[in-house]
Amino acid sequence: MKSVSCSDRLENTEETKGFEMQKRQLGATGPVVSALGLGCMGMSNAYGPADRDESIATVRAALDAGVTLLDTGDFYGQGHNEMLIAEAIRGRRDEAQLSVKFGGLRDADGAFIGFDTRPNAVANFLAYSLQRLGTDHVDVYRPARLDPAVPIEDTIGAIAEQVEKGRVRHIGLSEVGPETIRRAHAVHPIADLQIEYGLLERGVEREILQVTRELGIGITAYGVLSRGLISATPLALGASDWRGHAPRFQGDNLTRNQDLVDKLGEIARDKGVTVAQLAIAWVAARGEDVVPLVGTTKRARLTEAIGAVDVTFTERELQEIEAVVPVGAAAGTRYAAEQMAALDSER
Questions:
Q1: Coil vs helix vs strand at 73
Q2: Which tens digit of pLDDT belongs to each residue from 132-144?
Q3: CATH number of 174's domain
Q4: Residue of 76, 141, 222, 335 marked catalytic
Q5: Is 76 one of the annotated active-site residues of the chain?
Q6: Total tally of structural domains belonging to the chain
Q7: In the chain, pLDDT over 70 holds for what percent of residues?
């Protein structure tokens, strides 16, 4: 299998050097990026304690392998994530494409207390991100969520001003629905929409994907492994791991979802790949306009993810996967009820 030889090749090199990464363009107007992006949120303890040195080594190994797209948010660890990335890419800024979310407000305990995407807030958040990241620009800048108190036109217009000043290269969106996408794109070309998309979460296919393709907007898909559900390793959630409060990780829902993953694992074994590689490759196979984001804090998991880049499917294999995990098969919603109600993408 291509994926097996790819993984073997990576393991036999110094970290991941020498691997030629595929590229994809984010929409009609966005940048050309690696066919796989690295999600860095977990490096700031979102899923429990993370080893700082290993996290930095993982970012550097990603760059070595040609993974250029690094995804972060200014509220990940209240700025911790951006400073960690700055250390990891020091001297290698030209190899990285930084995708930054902003607008999330958090208190000293880490609790979310709202969103702020007013024009003045855009300028303020960006200034702080540039300082923490040690750079004069970010490659893709996006509001983390729709701020119900601020017209999307005002937010995108403010980011467009930063594009004119050279501090932002491209504008993105995150977790918004069709109407918001159209309104934003009318103000300034949108490079990509970041949204959850994977075997266990296919809400984007209802209407959003049709709109992004009509407008020439790419998709950066997070949650491709359903936050660790799709793994051959049993989950062990610590007290600080927010997944313990997510419906898909609770009680009977978790049992049912793990059963789905076990069935996917059988297909993966027959194909000669890991279940995680199967899931990542399935998302990538949804279209050239889709770039999977894989969150990890460890080099070994990064190597596994990169092994998915060369995986392809026959029509029969896609049908087998669909039969095991049809649309809506996952038990429980992806966020708690209050958060789901606040998502513009779910309206």
A1: strand
A2: 999 999 999 999 9
A3: 3.20.20.100
A4: 76
A5: yes
A6: 1
A7: 92
